Amino acid sequence: MAYMSWRGTVGVIKPTMRPGGLEEFIRLLPEGVGVIPLFLNIRRGTEEEFRQVLSAYEEKVAELAGAEVDLIHPEGAPPFMVQGFDGEKKIVAEWEKKFKIPVVTAGMTQVEAMRALKVKRILGVTYFTGKINETFARYFKEGGFKVLGMDGISVAFEDVGRLSSQEVYAHTRKAFLRHPGADAIYMLGSGWRTLDIVALLEQDLGVPVIHPVPARVWAVQKRLHIRQPVSGYGRLLQEMP
Q1: Are 110 and 186 in contact (CB under 8 A)?
Q2: 3-class DSSP state for residue 199?
Q3: What is this structure's pTM?
Q4: Distance between the two ends of the chain, CA-based, in angstroms?
């Protein structure tokens, strides 16, 4: 059964039951874009769990294809980044061939945003620690970027949403000063509530910030042939490159 909105309908697959990111996404979308959300239930946030969840994603992709949406957006960068840059492209190509609907992942929206902003050297900040950050860095290196750092903040996966945006600002600023030469800041994950510091970081540090929520709003608009700038959330949405 098809569910239509007058400017297009996007089906999203949320990797967790965590609130926040979906509401932010819908608020920033232009009027007339419909959203059909489905949910997975990633709990531990480990690389092993990320690698095991692809079949569950495909089941949701099939469900959204059955609803005849215009675009399918599996959210959650880590489950696809652990597959590698080329591995992710292969998965998406197979789904598009099978289900006959365009598919774009979170990582793809972020890479496209960086290229649109003519970014070459990035500093990443995440809410993960340990070797998985090397996996995230490798994904962007394979995508053609120089990664100066992928600095994680130590927090339990289930507590990410409790971090204050001020704490994340301080972490990001310190990381940026430790890694001179970055021409953009990349914030991995929409589990932390940091939309309110995107424009502030850009103002203070003088480089664009690629945040998952504005990146997906920008990429959805692009694919639905909409161009409606949004102010207050960074250069990407304000300039709509």
Answers
A1: yes
A2: helix
A3: 0.96
A4: 34
Q: How many CA atoms lie within 13 A of 61 on its CB side?
A: 25
Per-residue pLDDT of the chain (241 residues; tens, 9 = 90+): 666 899 999 999 999 999 999 999 999 999 999 999 999 999 999 999 999 999 999 999 999 999 999 999 999 999 999 999 999 999 999 999 999 999 999 999 999 999 999 999 999 999 999 999 999 999 999 999 999 999 999 999 999 999 999 999 999 999 999 999 999 999 999 999 999 999 999 999 999 999 999 999 999 999 999 999 999 999 999 999 9
Task: Name which of 46, 36, 30 is nearest 14 in CA terms.
Answer: 36
The tokens describing 88, both together, are 């992710």
CA distance 189 to 144: 20
- Residues 73 and 90: beta-carbon distance below 8 Å: no
Q: How far apart are CA 37 and CA 87, in angstroms?
A: 25
Is 142:116 a contact under the CB 8 Å cutoff? no
Structure tokens at 43: 């709990």
Q: Could you give the CA distance from residue 173 to residue 191 in angstroms, rounded to a whole number?
A: 19
Cβ pair 185, 122 in contact under 8 A: yes
Residues 33, 226 contacting (CB under 8 angstroms): yes
